[in-house]
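#onboarding

Welcome to the new folks! Below is a worked example of what a typical request in this channel looks like: someone posts a single protein sequence, and someone else replies with the predicted structure as tokens. Don't worry about understanding the tokens yet, we'll cover that in week two.

Example request:
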Amino acid sequence: MNADHLELPAAWPATLAEGPVRLRPIRRLDQRRWQRLRESNRAWLSPWEATAPDDSTPPPPTFAAYVRQSLRQARRGVAMPWVIEYERELVGQLTISGIARGSALSGTIGYWIGEAFAGRGIATTAVALAFDHAVGPARLHRLEIVIRPENAASLRVAQKLGFRDEGLRRQYLHVAGQWRDHRVFALTREEVPDGLLARCRAI
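Example response:
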């Protein structure tokens, strides 16, 4: 285990806030609010949800098992799983996953938000908070966001924050029952020396 990996736990757990937007670690007590939000937004979220291409894949884990797995990954330093709150109400989720240390120092940002809260800049602020934490205390160098070309709402978040469009990955993920193309957006620490939150505030 290298020194970078040893120092990562100092970056987790972390609660981050900007005005009424807050990121905090997901927890088992979120189950009722999380499931209610997901259920009421099923039609809004399902076109963008990853699916299993193999019918023999086991059913998804219970919420408690999902949280245990997420927090175990966080302790190992390979993920940072947050919920998004707006004025203390749970409105979505953001996770930095696939964290690579060593010579890569990279990760992938994924997020979703309830339809009633879209268009208010909440997801944009949440991504900026997560990015600044990742390239600051977590000492990452590069963050990606991978988005379906049809997902206009998520594309706006990446574009508003100035993520660089690195092109199309053909049939990259199995989503809503089919292999789907995705566009890749990325930013490095050096491209945003003053932090992404400062850029977000100027929008």
